[in-house]
Amino acid sequence: MTATTWLTINKLKAKRDHLRAIMTPQKNAFLRDVRVKIPHTIRRGQKAILKCLYDIEDDTLYAVKWYKGRREFYRYTPSEEPPMQVFQFPGVRVDRSTSNETHLVLDSSTIATAGKYSCEVSADAPSFHTLIAAAELQVVELPHHQPLITGIRSRYHNGDILRGNCTSRHSKPAANLTWTVNNEEVQPSHVRHFKVHRDPKSEMQTSTIALHFLVNEHHFEKGKMKIRCIAQIGDVYYTTTEKIVLSAAYHHHHHNYHYQRYENDENEFNNVITTNKDYAADVNQYALQDRTLVGQGAGSSNNYISQVQELTAWSTAGNIDEANSCRTLLYLCIFYFLVTCFRLT
C-alpha cells in the first residue's frame, strides 16, 4: 500500500468520525428523578411533612410548586425575594418557618387536609425541564373508645354455639376489625362483616363484626378461652378488647372438689371440738351459711377455725347465763316457800 493510499484512507475515517459527532446528540445532565415522600395516614391535628426530592444535575432550579388536586397552594422560587409564596386553600395550613424547596410542613391537619398532593419541579434556562410526582394523604379521626364486645356469655358448655359482636364507633374511616381466639386468628367462615354505618350529620363511621362457632374442648386452656377483638386504622391506630370465657364443665368439677374438701374439714371439726348436740347443730347451721369461706386459699381454714372458736365462746357464755338464771329462780322458790310457811304458823 502506497503512502498516498494510506493518507486517503485516514482522511475518509476522519470525515466519518466528524459526521458521527454531528449526527449524535450531546448527553447533557438534565433534571431527573423527581419523587415525593408523603405519609399515607396521619391523625387529625397531627403535623404532616411532605418531601419533594429530585436530582438537579447540571440544571439550575427555577421553582418548586405544590398542588392539592389541580390547585397550586405553595411555590418556592430561589431567584425571587422572598422565595416563598403561600396561597390560601381550605384545610391546608403551611408552616412557613420550617418549609423550603424540599420540605413542606402542614400544621393542624383536619379531615379537609386529606387528598392528592403533587410536587412540580422546574429547571431554569436553557433546558426549562419540568417533572412532577404525586401521592395521596389520608387524615383519620380516631375512635374515642375501645371496641365493644357484646353478646358473649361468661361461661359455655362443650357443644354450645358462641355468638357475639364487636363494634368500633365514630371514626373516619371505619376501623378494620378482626377476631382472635387464644391469640390465633379466627377462620373466615366463623366471621361476618356488617356494612359500615355512616352518620349523616358528623360523617363519622361505625364498623361491626360478628363471631359464631361451635364450642369444643380444644377452645379452653385450663378452663379458660381468651377472645380478643382488634381494631386498626392504617399504621396510626391499633387497640384491642379482650374477654375471658370460662368452661362451665371445668369450673363445675373444681367447685365440687372444693365443696367435698369443705365437707371433710367440717366433719373433722365436729369430731374434735363438739360434744353437745345442740351446740353441734349450731355449728352445722353456721357452717352451711358460710360455705364461701372454704377453698379460698391457705388462710381459709384458719379463718374458719377462728370463727368456730368465737361461736364456742358465745355458746359457752350462753350456757353460763342459763345456769345463773336457774339458780336465781331456785332461790326465789325457796324464799316464797319459807314466807308461806311463816304466815301459816
What does this structure look like?
This is Ig-like domain-containing protein. It is a single-pass membrane protein. Residues 25-129 form the Ig-like domain. Pfam families: C2-set_2. Keywords: Disulfide bond, Membrane. By secondary structure, the protein is α+β, with helices and mostly antiparallel strands. Among the domains are: 32-140, Sandwich (Immunoglobulin-like), CATH 2.60.40.10; 148-248, Immunoglobulins (Immunoglobulin-like), CATH 2.60.40.10. Helix content is 31%, strand content 34%. It contains four helices and 19 strands. The strands form four sheets. A six-stranded mixed β-sheet has the order 2-9-8-4-5-6, with no helix packed on it. Strands 10, 12, 15, 16 and 17 form a five-stranded antiparallel β-sheet that branches. Strands 11-19-18-13-14 form a five-stranded mixed β-sheet. The N and C termini lie far apart (190 Å). The model is unreliable at 17-27 and 257-323 (pLDDT under 50).
Concise summary:
The chain is of the alpha+beta class and 345 residues long.
Give the helix/strand layout.
Blueprint: H1 3-23, E1 32-37, E2 41-43, E3 48-55, E4 61-68, E5 71-76, E6 84-86, E7 103-106, E8 115-123, E9 130-140, E10 148-150, E11 155-156, E12 161-171, E13 176-181, E14 184-185, E15 191-193, E16 197-198, E17 205-214, E18 224-233, E19 237-247, H2 248-273, H3 277-289, H4 299-344
Parallel strand pairs: 2-9, 11-19
Antiparallel strand pairs: 1-3, 3-7, 4-5, 4-8, 5-6, 8-9, 10-12, 12-17, 13-14, 13-18, 15-17, 16-17, 18-19
